Amino acid sequence: MPLPAQPILFMKATTAICGPDDDVIIPKGSFKTDWEVELGVVIGAVARHVTVDAALDHVAVISPSTTFPSENSSLNKVASG
User: Fold this and answer.
1) I need a surface site. Which of 17, 29, 33, 60 has the fewest CB within 10 A?
2) Which residues contact 34 (CB under 8 A, 6 or more apart)?
């Protein structure tokens, strides 16, 4: 698969965040759940029409994060055709 011309961005609701010792709850009916390590960026200030040079001024935290995508998620259905 070729690299996209633009970065792919995902937003996570604050209710999707859990702590390092919390259980991961796999949705009922999920037939294949995997894990991924990603770079999480938390925006800490309102950012509109920001220049490249000023972009990091709006970032509160950059941290590794783990997600648990399911093979039966909407994005995977779109990506696989």
Assistant:
1) 29
2) 68, 69, 70, 71
